[in-house]
Amino acid sequence: MPTNPNLPNTFIKDLQRFVTDDQLLLEPEDCWSYGYDNSKRHELPDAIVLCHHSDEAKAIVQYCFKHQIPIVPRGRGTGTTGAAVPIKKGIVLSLEQMNKKIIINSADRYAIVDPGVTNQELQIEAQKHGFFWPPDPTSSAYCTVGGNLAYNSAGPRAVKYGTPRENTLGVRAIIGTGEEIQTGVYTTKGVVGYDLTRLLIGSEGTLGIITEATLKLTPLAEAKCTIQALYTDIDGAAKAISSIMAQPIIPCALELIDRPALQCIQQYSGINFNDNIAAMLMIEVDGSQNHLIETANQLLKSAENDSCDSIIIADTQEKIDQLWNTRKALSPALRNIAPKKINEDVVVPVSKIPDLIKGLEQLSTKYQIKIVNFGHAGNGNIHVNLLVNPDDQAESKRSHDCLEDMFKLVLSLKGSLSGEHGVGMEKQPFVGWEIDPVSLRLMRNIKKQFDPKNILNPDKMFPLEESE
């Protein structure tokens, strides 16, 4: 039972007014698994509320506002930055059971969904009507739409189709006072008022709790074609990326895997590469069946250069799956090598990818840490994996120093500290390196307007002020 002295004496009875007993978890052993996300951080909350509909969420937030109780919204906890960790204890409001509503409007090309619907569930339902929702994180089978919006999580297709910000028409949300707002439109155009929809997306639950989303759907392409290109040096791969992104045909995926990542794949999957291969690109195009081969051939011209060792084209689903299995083999390989690795997702301009990779190679040597890089090259969004053991104090110290230098490198290349994983707590101390003081002040003031008592996911995203 909760022992937090800051809670009202009637805390449990109060919560029982809003939800049924089976929606309320109070014992430490029941609350434990809601105290962490996919980061390495953990804090035991005072209570878990398994929310079923927006009226319950609204009542809980109003109660928390009255008694100034911290409240952390949560989907499935797949985030990697500690954003869903209840560091101030209080209530974790789980939205995973708000998952009944998926309404597809084919005529106007939008879907209305509950926040607990998984990305995969939405894709399956949309596909029945000939559509898809472009955001496709790696965890799509498990992560929720609400979580995708909270982090602005995208995936490989963002290079052509954009992130959740570009594919969300509006949301319903509950702000920190317990009031409900509806943002956005049901049309693809609308300029009345400020764009609160895009403000809420990516805010990691610090401004409002999203209880419903209206999502823009895209028609499924008739056909796809996948190209695997191997390069003998990273400069050649980067040159190909720039060339591909400079021509009129935009690939629906453009993934980069560097030499250390290929070595991991080879070590644990049995997929072999020649010793001279330094990088691999996975390029996918979609479109009409009649023009797909022509489109692929145009991309091939952009992908070919003096460093290109070989190119494989797959135009059947079986062959496409075989090529993507190479990329899919990477994550389990990394888990075997370093189950407690540090995974960052930085972004640089596409033309600066070679500088980033070379700089990371130098940091790997300087700090004696193996660094593996892969990611969404068409956006310059590179996932940097430090294969460290945080239980080794000396290595942990080196990895922290290495991360600081990596962030400095990224910003010197006119990049950003995060592309889709968010800030949470992991990158919180470094946000001031990227955002100027005036902009930070404006953002803090926006937070106060939405959440005047600072109860919504407090002490996340922004660097802590001295008074905090």
What topology does this entry show?
Layout: H1 11-16, E1 24-25, H2 28-31, E2 47-50, H3 54-67, E3 71-74, E4 91-94, E5 102-105, E6 110-113, H4 119-128, E7 131-132, H5 145-151, H6 158-161, E8 168-175, E9 180-184, H7 196-200, E10 208-216, E11 218-219, E12 223-231, H8 234-246, E13 253-258, H9 259-269, E14 279-287, H10 292-303, E15 308-314, H11 317-328, H12 330-337, E16 342-347, H13 353-367, E17 371-376, E18 381-386, H14 393-412, H15 431-434, H16 437-450
Parallel strand pairs: 2-4, 3-4
Antiparallel strand pairs: 1-2, 5-6, 6-10, 7-11, 8-9, 8-10, 12-14, 12-15, 13-14, 13-17, 16-18, 17-18
Helix pairs in contact: 9-12, 13-14
Keywords:
7-stranded antiparallel sheet; 468 residues; alpha+beta; Alpha-Beta Plaits; 34% helix; single chain; Uridine Diphospho-n-acetylenolpyruvylglucosamine Reductase, domain 3; 18 strands; Uridine Diphospho-n-acetylenolpyruvylglucosamine Reductase, domain 2; 5-stranded antiparallel sheet
What does this structure look like?
This protein has 468 residues and is α+β, with helices and mostly antiparallel strands. Among the domains are: 84 residues, 2-Layer Sandwich (Uridine Diphospho-n-acetylenolpyruvylglucosamine Reductase, domain 2), CATH 3.30.43.10; 118 residues, Uridine Diphospho-n-acetylenolpyruvylglucosamine Reductase, domain 3; 116 residues, Alpha-Beta Plaits (2-Layer Sandwich), CATH 3.30.70. It has 16 helices and 18 strands. The chain has a 7-stranded antiparallel β-sheet, sandwiched between helices. The chain has a 5-stranded antiparallel β-sheet with strand order 5-6-10-8-9. A 4-stranded mixed β-sheet has the order 1-2-4-3. Helix 13 packs antiparallel against helix 14. The protein is globular and about 70 Å long. The protein starts with 10 loop residues before the first helix and ends in an 18-residue tail after the last helix.
